[in-house]
Amino acid sequence: MTRCPCPGCDREVQGDGFCCTEHYFALPQKEARSLLRLHISAKRERDPDNRAHLISQNHGYVASAFRRLLERNKEVSSVS
Ligand SMILES: [Zn+2]
Questions:
Q1: Is residue 63 classed as helix, strand or coil in its secondary structure?
Q2: Could you tell me how far CA 12 lies from the centroid of its own chain?
């Protein structure tokens, strides 16, 4: 079982996803799609070294996407 990589989220990642469904749809659609594409192509990579490299690269992308998401949410809640 894999947990959603979004900080503070403990939902389970379903199927081929890289994060829980809720956070997938919380990300900008374009970003979510390209992260999902990268995630799937990393899983399909046959060369173990290459795969490890792609997976750790994706972790970085996913982490920074969620950092930006949380930043935006903070801005929104501080305004209202
Ligand atoms: Zn989540």
A1: helix
A2: 13
What is the number of residues in the chain? Answer: 80
Q: How far is the CA of 63 from the centre of ligand 1 (A)?
A: 12
Domain ranges of the chain: 21-79
pLDDT at 80 over 60: no
- Over residues 9-57, the pLDDT tens digits come to 999 999 999 999 999 999 999 999 999 999 999 999 999 999 999 999 9
Q: Is 6 helix (H, G, I), strand (E, B) or coil?
A: coil
Task: For residue 12, give the 3-state DSSP assignment.
Answer: strand
Tell how far the Cα of 12 is from the centroid of ligand 1, in angstroms: 8
